């Protein structure tokens, strides 16, 4: 679905990392783990074609992403950014409806199907009660759920989420992570970043461990979400509790 080969990432005059090989496959969830400032968001933005690669290439279904027209990109690829405060007071429903933009013609009015998909997305995230509230009056976590609903409404083939659970309470973390799993089970390719290795352990198929602008390791969750790997990744002590399917990791 989405592939990167020997990708170098960064900003003008500032190299953040290099040597990334990434494969986002239909029906599979990839989790990206790594310390603060390691380059996770920069990698996501490069995969999305929002900032140019400094080397290597990103292919969207085999085509160089820079050459895929923006509308085509929006039909195939959804992005859930870290929930930032916004000055605009659009009602939440309108924000979710914006996810439908690429499906209509230029200036086309949304149709019955667009509104049905928006309702369905609001329901899946359990936020129908927020539909008419202005987005700039919502809490950070509520806003995050609206952004995930907007990505669902886009009906893409791949979804990339930047710390989707960061500002969510425990219940809503589960809601969003289950939704992420369900999207992959429905055949989408999914990539999300998280600071909680347990989220990767429970909901992802593969992980990419990223540190100092490079790939420390990449592979199946069961092989890499382990105490020694996490200690190397974060340069900090990690405690393992439980065992088998019930195992989890805590900062020690
Ligand atoms: N617009 C920018 N211009 C120049 N440097 C930037 C820009 N945005 C981020 N950086 C730098 O790039 C590096 C990687 O940042 P990035 O946001 O990708 O890390 P991250 O792994 O997502 O971090 P966190 O876990 O804290 O969100 C950092 O050193 C950061 O200061």
TrEMBL record:
Pfam family, one: ABC_tran
ATP-binding among keywords: yes
UniProt xrefs under SMART domains: AAA
Superkingdom as given in the UniProt entry: Bacteria
Family annotation (SUPFAM superfamilies): P-loop containing nucleoside triphosphate hydrolases
Domain ABC transporter: 2-237
Keywords noted in UniProt: ATP-binding, Cell membrane, Membrane, Nucleotide-binding, Translocase, Transport
GO molecular function: ATP binding; ATP hydrolysis activity
Hydrolase in keyword set: no
Family: Belongs to the ABC transporter superfamily.
Known function: Part of the ABC transporter complex HmuTUV involved in hemin import. Responsible for energy coupling to the transport system.
Designated name of the protein: ABC transporter ATP-binding protein
Organism for this UniProt entry: Ramlibacter agri
């Amino acid at each position: 679905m989405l592939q990167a080969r020997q990708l170098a990432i960064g900003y003008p005059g500032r190299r953040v990392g290099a040597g990334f090989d990434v494969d986002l496959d239909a029906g599979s969830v990839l989790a990206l783990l790594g310390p603060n400032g390691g380059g996770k968001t920069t990698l996501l933005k490069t995969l999305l074609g929002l900032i140019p690669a400094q080397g290597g290439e990103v292919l969207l279904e085999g085509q160089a992403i820079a050459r895929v027209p923006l509308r085509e990109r929006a039909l195939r690829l959804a992005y859930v950014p870290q929930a930032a405060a916004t000055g605009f007071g659009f009602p939440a429903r309108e924000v979710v409806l914006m996810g439908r933009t690429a499906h209509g013609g230029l200036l086309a009015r949304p149709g019955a199907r667009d509104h049905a998909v928006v309702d369905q997305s609001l329901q899946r995230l359990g936020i129908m009660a927020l539909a008419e509230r202005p987005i700039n009056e919502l809490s950070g976590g509520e806003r995050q759920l609206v952004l995930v609903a907007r990505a669902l409404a886009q009906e893409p083939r791949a979804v990339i989420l930047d710390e989707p659970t960061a500002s969510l309470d425990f219940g809503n973390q589960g809601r969003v992570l289950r939704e992420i799993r369900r999207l992959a089970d429905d055949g989408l390719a999914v990539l999300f970043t998280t600071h909680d290795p347990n989220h990767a352990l429970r909901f992802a198929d593969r992980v990419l461990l990223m540190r100092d602008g490079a790939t420390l390791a990449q592979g199946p969750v069961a092989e890499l979400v382990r105490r020694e790997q996490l200690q190397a990744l974060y340069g900090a002590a990690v405690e393992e509790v439980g065992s088998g399917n019930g195992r989890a990791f805590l900062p020690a």
